[in-house]
Amino acid sequence: MQSHTHTSPAGQGNAVALLIVDLQNDFLHPNGAYARGGAVIDAARALPAKVERVARRVKEKAGLVVSSQFTLWPGIGGEPLISEHLKKLRPFLKKGDFQPMSWGQQSVDLLNDLIDFSVSKVAYSAFFNTQLDWILARAGIKELVVCGIVTNGGVASSVRDAHMRDYRCTVLGDGCAAFSEQIHETSLADLSSVATVTTCESYLSSAWI
User: Fold this and answer.
1) Which candidate among 101, 119, 131, 169 keeps its CA 20 to 30 Å from the CA of 2?
2) CATH label of the domain that carries residue 66
């Protein structure tokens, strides 16, 4: 878990947290691992600018901004510990990609300084084997606003896990992206059964702010 600048003390009744799923350099930056492997989602590169506005507003209202960082932990000899399904899907991943505390594992520059806490994750969900639920509970978070990549992967899994933990969930539809628009839209439709799906602009215009 990485800790950044804290906007307000944990446990002081923060009601809302923005969860940014995997908007990292190795996924989005032209010099990142996925660009090297030709697997960048073009729509995802536009997300940080949209998400930044929401993150700033959440912080203005004493909410938390939390990110999940997909992480490949180094094993013996420094080679990344990659699950079999990911190794087949992304054979270009190599030593140093998504490594803890590396440039590639970090959130993109536009968002990095806005993040209060980061959790390192090894699977789709930001809750799986991380301290995210502990952090949110201690901070008094009841409502979770989710954005990031991919809509049908990390976003969907995190939202469903949050729902099971009784968080009120909102998904920023245009703050997410997938490898196809059809998959993206289908995933948002599926998530509407467990979360409110809206846009960044609509959320910024909502009553709580």
Assistant:
1) 169
2) 3.40.50.850
